[in-house]
Design a protein that fits this description.
The chain is of the alpha+beta class and 121 residues long. It is built from four helices and three strands.
């Protein structure tokens, strides 16, 4: 009887270890850098606000370099979904272009296609 009990405890502990290990890998944070077009502080606010989503841990867009550094959990959100969030607010990325209708709703100073680098604040 003790052997069976010990065996059950061992199996249970093994299962717990595997579950914890899988959960740790599932919640692993990855950081990527994307080019995102924009011109000014309003663009920065819009881009970063669009990335206030489940699975995204941090997002910082640099006005000068046009680079977005985003830290996220791939099991919760994909890089494809991150690109989609950005283009949904009118900004192009290095892999996707925002729809013209959405882009046209941006304020004049934010229209990077017509006015590249017009603002640096």
């Amino acid at each position: 009887m003790n052997n069976i009990k010990n065996h059950i405890i061992l199996v249970f502990l093994s299962f717990c270890f595997v579950s914890v290990q899988a959960q740790t890998q599932t919640n692993k944070v990855v950081t990527d850098t994307l080019t995102v077009l924009g011109n000014c502080g309003m663009c920065k606010s819009r881009i970063e606000a669009a990335l206030d989503a489940k699975g995204i841990k941090a997002a910082e867009w640099d006005i000068q370099t046009k680079l977005l550094v985003v830290s996220y959990v791939p099991s919760k959100i994909s890089l494809e979904q991150i690109n989609q969030l950005i283009i949904s607010v009118g900004h192009d990325t290095n892999s996707k272009k925002a729809e013209d209708g959405v882009y046209s709703t941006l304020p004049g100073c934010c229209r990077f296609r017509e006015n590249p680098n017009t603002h640096t604040d």
